[in-house]
Structures are given as structure tokens and as C-alpha cells.
Automatic annotation (TrEMBL):
It comes from Tetranychus urticae (Two-spotted spider mite). InterPro entries: Aldolase_TIM, OMPdecase, OMPdecase_AS, OMPdeCOase_dom, RibuloseP-bd_barrel. Substrate binds at D31, K53, S145, Q203, G223, R224. This is Orotidine 5'-phosphate decarboxylase. PANTHER family: OROTATE PHOSPHORIBOSYLTRANSFERASE, URIDINE 5'-MONOPHOSPHATE SYNTHASE. Keywords: Decarboxylase, Lyase, Pyrimidine biosynthesis. PROSITE patterns: OMPDECASE. Pathway: Pyrimidine metabolism; UMP biosynthesis via de novo pathway; UMP from orotate: step 2/2.
Length: 254
């Protein structure tokens, strides 16, 4: 619980406590396109994860009812909702994308992603859009997992510096390597799989152990490694045990 007391970020306080209580540091990426399929998976997997991540703009039959069902499941299973929007525009546009359109992301997404290349004015725009009474956070994309990404050391450096300026709103990072020495931020690492090293479209996978121990992940993002398994719940539980034991070892308090 040391890290919980070291963070000033309200979302991270919730997450540190939830990880310890639920004994999981999994974020499940539910990249499905039919709302009923998403709801079905989330109801099954919710007890074993701390976060459900979606790409709302790939859902073919999106409506408000889908959001209402997600929020009901969030309360039932106790997880946070992460909309992986990867904002990457000027502040005025990002603000409209965050609060408006048909998705009204700010209403329901506890966490969103922002490309670090856009700098600080976009963070301030998102903060302006945060009118919910609940905590909201943003994750800075410091590095990406796929082959040929143009973000390297510079992304890591920029993300670390920007996060320090907005510690109550920036929850942490999406990265393949350590970004910050500040224990109050949370690092998310995608590109994790047990039985595969890639998807033939550039994605590169490492094991949960490599992600947490070598790459410094606090939370691992897992998608197809679970969803495409023969027995998804069994596979999720394997990810859960393997990733959480590494996380617990790394965060052991003396
Ligand atoms: O660098 C990244 C950043 C993200 S957020 N690489 C990623 O793969 N992601 C997301 O993580 C991606 O959009 C997808 O939703 C998920 C990985 O899914 P998987 O099926 O490859 O595990």
C-alpha cells in the first residue's frame, strides 16, 4: 500500500487498492465489434481484472444502452472503464471529442489515452472537459508495442516530464519501458501474450513475466491472447496468476 500513499492521483489510489484486493493487475482489451458480445465477455471476466479497455469507435451497434450496461457491470464486478481513444489533435478538437459527439466519452470513461506528441495544451483541454463528479485520468502514450513505431526514448522522456506537471490528472503511461521513478504513476504495458509472439500486422508480444519484470509494467493489457483462447476464462486466470505474482514480488514492502 506504500504506492497508494505516494500518489496524488485519485484514479491511481483506487487502482492500487483494487489491485491488492482483487489480486490482479490485468487490463482486458475487449476489441470486439458487437455490443452484446462485449457485455457477455465483460460479465465473465470482470471479477478477474481491474480494468476493461474498449475502443468505442469500433462498435457497430453503439448506443446509450451499451454504456448503461457497462456501468452496471462496472459496479457489479468492481473495475474501471478505459476508452483507448488515443487523442492526438489540437486542444479545441480534443475537447469536443472527449465530451461530445455520440460517444460522450467523459461521461463514462475513467481513463483515456493521449498521444504524448500533442504536448501539454491537449491535457489542459481534457481537464477542461472533466466535469464528472468522479475521478478521471489520462494515460500518456510514451511508446508503442508494434514494429516500426516512431516513438522511442524521446517519447519516454516527454511523457515523464509532462506527467510531473499534471500529477492529479495524468495517471501514468502506456509504455514498453520504465518512464518515471515516481511510484505514484502507473505504467500500462500492452503487447502481452503467452502463446504467440506477433499477430502478422506488426503487433509484438512478450510474456507477462517479461512485461512486468523486465519492462516495468504495473498493469498488463491483454486482448487476443485471452479472447481468442479455446477457454478464455481459464487463459485469463493464467495471465492473472502469472502477472500478479510478478507485480506483488516487485512491490513487496519490507
Ligand atoms: O502500443 C500499444 C498501445 C495500445 S493501447 N499497443 C497496443 O496494442 N495497444 C492496445 O492494446 C491496442 O489498441 C489493443 O486494444 C490492445 C492489444 O490487444 P492484443 O489483442 O494485441 O493483446
Amino acid at each position: 500500500m506504500e504506492r497508494m500513499s505516494r500518489t496524488v492521483n485519485p484514479i491511481n489510489k483506487v487502482l492500487f487498492e483494487m489491485m491488492e484486493r482483487k489480486k490482479t493487475n490485468l487490463c482486458l482489451a475487449v476489441d470486439l465489434t458487437k455490443s452484446s458480445e462485449i457485455i457477455d465477455i465483460v460479465d465473465k471476466m470482470g471479477p478477474h481484472v481491474v480494468i476493461i479497455k474498449i475502443h468505442v469507435d469500433i462498435i457497430e451497434d453503439f448506443d446509450r444502452e451499451f454504456i448503461e450496461k457497462m456501468v452496471t457491470l462496472k459496479k457489479k464486478h468492481d473495475f474501471l472503464i478505459f476508452e483507448d481513444r488515443k487523442f492526438a489533435d489540437i486542444g479545441a478538437t480534443v475537447l469536443k471529442q472527449y465530451v461530445g459527439g455520440i460517444f460522450r466519452i467523459q461521461d463514462w470513461a475513467d481513463l483515456v489515452t493521449l498521444h504524448v506528441i500533442t504536448g501539454t495544451t491537449t491535457i489542459e483541454a481534457l481537464m477542461k472537459g472533466w466535469t464528472s463528479s468522479e475521478p478521471r485520468g489520462v494515460l500518456l502514450i510514451a511508446q508503442m508495442s508494434h514494429k516500426g513505431s516512431l516513438l522511442h526514448e524521446d517519447g519516454v522522456k516527454m511523457a515523464g516530464q509532462i506527467a510531473q506537471q499534471y500529477p492529479t490528472f495524468v495517471s501514468g503511461f502506456i509504455s514498453q519501458a520504465k518512464v518515471s521513478n515516481d511510484p505514484g504513476f502507473i505504467q500500462f504495458t500492452p503487447g502481452v501474450n503467452i502463446g504467440s509472439t506477433g499477430d502478422g500486422m506488426g503487433q509484438q508480444y512478450v510474456t507477462p513475466e517479461e512485461a512486468v519484470i523486465k519492462r516495468n509494467a504495473d498493469i498488463i493489457i491483454v486482448g487476443r491472447g485471452v479472447l481468442q483462447a479455446e477457454d478464455p476464462v481459464k487463459m485469463l486466470l493464467e495471465f492473472k496468476t502469472r502477472a500478479y505474482s510478478c507485480y506483488a514480488m516487485k512491490n513487496k514492502e519490507n
